[in-house]
């Protein structure tokens, strides 16, 4: 009996163990199904794709593209700087005009006050019964001489009163005009300040763009091999600077100044004397000839006298690209001197090696 009870207890324990196993197996299966279903609903993790490896030619092409973009940005930045400086001068001028108009208004107000005193005195005299006409003079005169004296005095009083009235009227008119001028000058000055701030914001944005582009360009430049650098700088052209005509004309002085900077580095926004951007070299060269030309390649295209390609003379500026984003100076014999791009020093090259020809201008 004891053995039967013992066997019954053993069977019960085995049953409990097997039941617990079945429950754990079921929970594991359900949990596995949930995980699988959830994974199916979730987006697949992104697969890291390595950047495509660029060839040497692709790297050099990318460098040139970035350099052109940077040059356009630099010229736009130069234009924004010119406009900002112009607006700052406008602000200063309009503020001076406004101050002068206000000072004139104060002076006119004093004249107006003095004239008003005289008019008020005349009005008070009339109110008290003063007579200033010839009939009154006849009635109060007891002799011909007295009549003449009274009429003479009244005539003087009448003329003075009329003069005072005219002066007061004129002063009032000029005072109103002075007030209007002062208000207009103040409004113009405020508008000039707002415009200057707008140009300053534009300038700062372009400077930021250029800085970002310059970082990329310098990074690529550092990675270029000697072969790539040689390809970037291009071949050396046979050019004898001594063959450039010398003279005292501004154009020839500018040419001599420009070719004297051969080998100097290209720097965005630089205007010399030892580093340049493209338009900065033109500006500096003509400055040596005591001649002022616009700062940017776009403005240089807009100024000067148009020149046909067949009529080019040393000193003429050649504008490149439809966007007028590059410029060089014709030095004769089919050559142009220009500041090309970052990493390439000032050099003399054939006209069409400096970029797509757009137009030429003579200053």
Automatic annotation (TrEMBL):
Q: Which GO terms describe its biological process?
A: proteolysis
InterPro entries from the UniProt entry: NLP_P60_dom, Papain-like_cys_pep_sf, PG_Endopeptidase_C40
* Biased composition annotated in UniProt, kind: Polar residues: 75-84
Q: State the residue spans of region: Disordered.
A: 71-96
What keywords appear on the UniProt entry? Hydrolase, Protease, Thiol protease
A Pfam match:
NLPC_P60
Q: What Gene Ontology molecular function terms does this protein carry?
A: cysteine-type peptidase activity
Give residue ranges for domain NlpC/P60: 248-363
The record's listing under SUPFAM superfamilies reads:
Cysteine proteinases
* Similarity comment text for this entry: Belongs to the peptidase C40 family.
**PANTHER family under this entry?**
NLP_P60 DOMAIN-CONTAINING PROTEIN-RELATED (PTHR47359:SF3), PEPTIDOGLYCAN DL-ENDOPEPTIDASE CWLO (PTHR47359)
Query: Any idea what this protein is called?
Result: NlpC/P60 family protein
List the lineage, top down.
Bacteria, Bacillati, Actinomycetota, Actinomycetes, Mycobacteriales
